[in-house]
Specification:
By secondary structure, the protein is an alpha/beta fold. The protein has a single domain, classed as 3-Layer(aba) Sandwich (Rossmann fold), CATH 3.40.50. Helix content is 43%, strand content 22%. The protein contains 13 helices and ten strands. Strands 6-7-8-3-9-10 form a six-stranded mixed sheet, with helices on both faces. Helix 5 runs parallel beside helix 7 and helix 6 crosses helix 7. It starts with a strand and ends with a helix.
Length: 279
Amino acid sequence: MIEMKDFSFRYASGKRNALNNLNLTIEDGDFVGIIGNSGAGKTTLTYAINGIVPHHYKGDFYGAVTVNGLDTVDSSPEQIAAHVGSVFQDVDAQMVASMVEDELLFGLENFSVPREEIEGRVAEALEQTGISALRHRDLDTLSGGQKQKVAIAAILALRPRIILLDEPTGELDPQSSEQIYSLLARLNREHGTTIIAVEQKIGLLCRYVKKLLVLEKGEVMLHGPVREVLESSGRMEESGIHVPRIVSLHKELSGLGLVHSSAPVSMDEAETMVREALQ
């Protein structure tokens, strides 16, 4: 479980808090999507969870953040990394090896995974992300999207209880984006892995996550089950957050009294909504 109590953080060079007075709980087995405008504090929130704040980025830290019982101030990033696998927005900065296979082996060896398990974990992670054919390729020869999949595969091979991703589909095409979120949803469903993803593609998030966390100017605007948050789409739009078109359509049809169902999160549900409105 991840808990934040009265948590605020201001970077040493910052003029205001990047995050302000957060009281937040993410339960074991949650699948949470984090959205918000640029500067809302999304990346800083991920840094607070994996210990980059305050260990690598210094500043004013108030309140408390705990991850699986570890206080992130008192625990080292290495200790936290045993619980939290992170995929960063700048994927090149995350790479430590020159070949795909070596990138996966690096983490497994550093965490002292038994030798007899390593081959199976590498093969499984590559297959899960659809990049088995890239196993012996040089990282310098890969596209941005392929590197993103390598970074995700390296984390999957470690089998952490929490996977934290900052815009994991930024370099991926729609089909690959769906593949990644389908995989994350399966890990969450079948293994109880806690997934936390910062994402700009809100429509994609809504089809897979259990909860949405909406940040605005370093504070929590909304946090709860996807459909409950989408019922407050008007509030998000007022703040300049673009909601899925099917949600905007639901708001208009509801206002006209033509539909009485909850906001749709998929095209199948949107089709049902339109059929209801036309009756």
